[in-house]
Amino acid sequence: MGFALVINFFAAPIFAVLYPYVMRIVIKFTAEQYGLLETSFMGVYFSETF
């Protein structure tokens, strides 16, 4: 369980801050493209839970 806590500690900031920054600023996604990408990730997440 300690390993999972350490991974979550380092992975959470990457997906909360760095990932949106890279998609919007570096790759220059529009708001619509970024929203579609985020929606597709949630679709994959929900489809794997059933």
List the helices and strands and how they pair.
Blueprint: H1 2-26, H2 31-49
Largest sheet, in brief, is: none
Bulk shape: flat
Unreliable runs: none
- Helicity range: over 70%
Q: How do the SSEs run, as a string of H and E?
A: HH
How far apart are the first and last residues' alpha carbons, in Å?
25 Å
Strand-residue proportion: under 5%
Mean pLDDT: 90
What's the Cα radius of gyration?
A: 14 Å
Structural class: mainly alpha
Tally of discrete structural domains: 1
Describe this protein with a few key phrases:
single chain, 50 residues, mainly alpha, 0% strand
Give a short summary of the structure:
The chain is mainly α and 50 residues long. The chain has 2 helices and no strands. It has one domain.
Describe the protein's architecture and organization.
The chain crosses the membrane at residues 6-27. Keywords: Membrane, Transmembrane, Transmembrane helix. This is MFS transporter. With 50 residues, the chain is mainly alpha-helical. The chain has one domain (1-48). The protein is built from two helices and no strands. It has helices spanning 2-26, 31-49. It is flat, with a radius of gyration of 14 Å. It starts with a helix and ends with a helix.
